[in-house]
Amino acid sequence: MIDHTEATTHLTEAEVRLQHLRDFQAAGIDPYPAQSSRTHTLDQARLLTVGATAVLAGRLIAKRKMGKLCFTKLRDSTGELQVSFSEKDLGAERYDFFCRHVDVGDFVQTEGALFVTHKGELTLGATNWSLLAKALLPLPEKWHGLTDVEVRYRKRYLDLLANEEARRTALLRSLLTRAIRQYFDSHGFFEVETPILQPLYGGANARPFVTHHHALDTDLYLRIAPELYLKRLIVGGFEKVYEIARCFRNEGIDHNHNPEFTQIEYYWAYADYVDSMALVEDLLPYLIKSIGLPLTFIAEGQEVDFTPPYPRVTMRQIIIDYAGIDIEAFPTQESLLAKARELGLKDLDGSEGRGKLIDEIYKVFARPKIVNPVFMIDHPVELSPLAKRKASDPRYVERFQLLCVGGNELCNAFTELNDPLDQEERFKEQERLVAAGDEEGMKYDEDYINALKQGMPPTSGLGMGIDRLVKLLVNAPNLKEVILFPTLRPEHTEPYEKSDGIRDV
């Protein structure tokens, strides 16, 4: 019998665990075997009849010895179950070795029969056990919960181990993504993949990340959106495509923004933005119900009701309602800049185009006051370089954003611009804005123009941020709660710059 009790009394817990590892090795036991013979998950074991035998495996999360009997709690991805170890069933030496050298946090396999304790708790009575993986560090805060936010985000594995809500959020996000695929697959869309490394960035107004390909000796950009490639597929003959796309935007971080994020984008030939509004009113209730949530819930301290239909209000009218100005009374960049400054928007350097000024006024005065879902429709053409003009008023485009509590922009959708000459002029205007100092303007994409010149049918496209939707549904205070491994500043550095927002997914 190996006994290091006296020698280990002065050791730290990590040192004790390392000694226990060596004790297993000294006994000829591999502390990290490759195989397990588990027959049931813990959830499946709960469905067995009392007296049935099973081989269970999981992480030991609690251990309480009472003389010749030791009660433990085992956890796997399906739940928890009590397991009892006794000297009578295991023999004195095997029982003693378990009690001395198996620690809370270790992965173990147990074999035995199910019974119910006198307190009514279903329990597996272990007649055999084996170690599956030795944990050399203790579980966070003795399993009472991990509350340090910085540690939770930097070491998500500890957060998932210690906090049930973190596990629930991660699972809910996975189920939501699965439901998105099921919805679009069942509606005739084909899932595709487009490049993450791109020679030109486009599809949104945002600053890109730049990298360099050494073999080609050329700079490439991490995509800010998959839009222009997906529309090339519409030109090529697809009629319904979607991509669940990881995107990257080189901007600041705040409670609602992360430099890398996930969105779904779809493109639907022979449809317009009115068709997409109807699809969204069908999609969102489907997604919410698919993860077991009601359509009315609390978010950011307010009750939000996602029961369709959702109101449709023009961007012009929303700004009139909340900022008290009509943007058509200020038809030039100069007049609107002066009015924006008069309204109190001081952090403007004068290089902003008229579209960006309209967007800033909306964000300051209107966005924070939105609660229930509303389609903000018909944006100014200056703000929407990829959307089709309204035939009834070419100053505006066929576009909508679905807004909800706090002005969260869940969806951004267009009737896509398929006139190559109009698109060419708008790209040139974007280049003029970039030359004037706008770091988020789009590049001129000649190949995309050539694709449009081949002909693209009337098409509606939509982007929806999955991170933001999950954040809303679980009522999380920060986007970092719903991204398993969020971008964080390096430790011991100055705080990162706050963002004024991703430029609409």
Task: Report on this structure.
With 505 residues, the chain is α+β, with helices and mostly antiparallel strands. It is built from 15 helices and 20 strands. The protein has two domains: 13-138, Nucleic acid-binding proteins (OB fold (Dihydrolipoamide Acetyltransferase, E2P)), CATH 2.40.50.140; 161-310 and 372-481, Bira Bifunctional Protein, Domain 2 (BirA Bifunctional Protein, domain 2), CATH 3.30.930. The protein has helices at residues 13-26, 42-45, 87-90, 92-101, 149-154, 156-162, 164-186, 227-235, 273-290, 315-323, 333-342, 354-365, 420-435, 446-453, 466-473; strands at residues 53-66, 69-76, 79-86, 107-116, 122-133, 190-191, 197-198, 210-213, 218-222, 240-248, 260-269, 296-299, 302-305, 312-314, 374-377, 389-390, 393-397, 399-404, 408-415, 459-465. The strands form five sheets. Strands 6-10-11-20-19-18-15-14 form an eight-stranded mixed beta sheet, sandwiched between helices. Helix 6 crosses helix 7, helix 11 runs parallel beside helix 12 and helix 13 packs antiparallel against helix 14 (446-453). Mean pLDDT is 92; it is low at 1-6 and 495-505.
